[in-house]
Fold AAA domain-containing protein.
Amino acid sequence: MGKIFEAMYGADGDSVETETEANKQHEVVEEAVENSVRRYPENLILPLGRTFDGNAKWRRDMRKVTINLMVQADPQEVGGKAVMFSGMSKNVGTSTVTAQVAKILAAEYSRHRVLVLDVREAGVSDAMTLDRAMMDGYSVDDVLSGCDSEGIFRMLVSSSDEQGRSAMISHQLREFIAKAREHFDWVLLDMPKQGSTPLADSLGRVVDGVAIVANTGVTRVPAINAVEEDMEQLGINLLGVILNFRKYPIPSWLLRFL
């Protein structure tokens, strides 16, 4: 505020301002203060939230999953990559998997910066969302100005069923992801279940790949094959399928002897 203070009242040795000049300077100050407030939308960045750490085997498996994603999406380990996570159905643990992958990636890369875009179905949340902030006039740089430190950042995105608004949100998010690649090591999209939002097909073409989360005991192979064919036709890179809730009928101690 030092420079603004001087602009408003005049530095030492300046002549006394006229009323008109003082009003102009006052307007400059008000505009500067307004810009400083609008530079960063309030309540947009949220904590990652409570994550499920699981048992030791699940954590080891998730580390293997993450390493495989890194090798396929970022073989040179240069960062700036974007991956979408989408569930075959509800309650398959997509958000849990995304959060765990984010924690592992943040520990692996030098800048330790990971952004999670938590895409919700339309009307689910009343909180500040990324699409709402951008519709209100915040630029990509405005939003990213609040993400200068290390860590995992999470932002909500509200999808829309309206064709016109959905197309606008899609355009804004594609622009945002392109810029966010320069700011973060990884951008992870936590999407609703397959087929629930048109954003999945649009954003799937601009990310480096998509990981499908499936419930091992519920999801059927033909359903996964159908999704894979659809993605291939749309030019979407399917990185692989994450089998969550996998259970082993034979105890691990007994497997050692087989």
Q: What stands out?
A: The chain is about 45% helix and 15% strand. The radius of gyration is 23 Å. Residues 45-253 form a domain with the Rossmann fold fold (CATH 3.40.50.300).
